[in-house]
Amino acid sequence: MKRALITAALLLTTQALAVTNPIPFGPGEQALYEVSFMGVPAGIAQITVGLRTEQYGAKVLPLVCVGQTTSVANVFQIKDRFVSYFDPVALKPVGADYFIDENRSRRREKFRFNQEPLKAHANKKKEGQGAYDISYDVPEGTMDLAAAAFWLRAQTLTVGEVREVPIFTGAKWYPMHVVVEGRETLSTKLGEVPVFRVSISTDFHGNAATKGNIIVYYTADARQLPVRVRAEFVVGSATADLVQYLPGSSLL
């Protein structure tokens, strides 16, 4: 369950609206989220925009996402790392790497997107086993969760907008529905912040299945930075709050 919340804090939604210029993030940006379950601190999620590099023949920004439990009382211990290779010009991912460490079970997964029509190619390896290649059928424009989050930040949020984007979770894709429900002022750990309230559908299963949509709050300014995520899972409620933010450099 906690992995689903940390994932929610990392993805922080997606949408398709008019693109702003310049994009409101760049190398060096870092956001730290405190994750709680049923009001009790349970973990952290940190998102960092890395330096420009080249991956799969494209110039990209690595979006480095780390999620981990912080309480020794947690029965299910997590320390996951996810890197999405995001093309800031095309506003789409070209690939992604997963490094998963959950309850002493470790595996690595590498993905390539948008290089062959309607396909996502993966290389997967579980600790103690051999690696294997596998391909998945996906719709055009499919994104991983982290790339979708930053893609949204490069859009112009408008109250009342309803959009749908295909999201690839590592083994399948699903259509993510996004609605910009309204604007309000939110009390956060960083102060009072004008925000957009955005509702997102998910496709989590088991204990990670949500009761209704996840609600994400984005600052109503040029950054459009996620400051809070709230979700009701079948096993209880969870929240991710932004507690620290460092801006990055301009891309232009």
Report what the structure shows.
A hairpin with a 4-residue loop joins strand 10 (162-168) and strand 11 (173-188). The chain has a 15-stranded antiparallel β-sheet that branches. The chain has helices at 2-11, 145-153, and strands at residues 30-37, 40-49, 53-55, 58-69, 79-87, 92-102, 105-112, 119-126, 132-137, 162-168, 173-188, 191-200, 214-219, 226-233, 236-246. The longest helix has 10 residues, at 2-11. With 252 residues, the chain is mainly β. It has two helices and 15 strands. The chain has one domain (2-245).
The main sheet comes to: 15 strands, antiparallel
**Model regions low in confidence, pLDDT < 50 over at least 5 residues:** 1-21
What's the rounded overall pLDDT mean? 83
Element-by-element helix/strand order? HEEEEEEEEEHEEEEEE
Task: Give the terminus-to-terminus CA distance.
Answer: 39 Å
Percent strand: over 45%
Overall geometry comes to: globular
Structural class designation: mainly beta
User: What is the number of E strands?
Assistant: 15
Radius of gyration computed on alpha carbons: 17 Å
Number of helices: 2
Structural domain count: 1
The level of helicity is under 10%
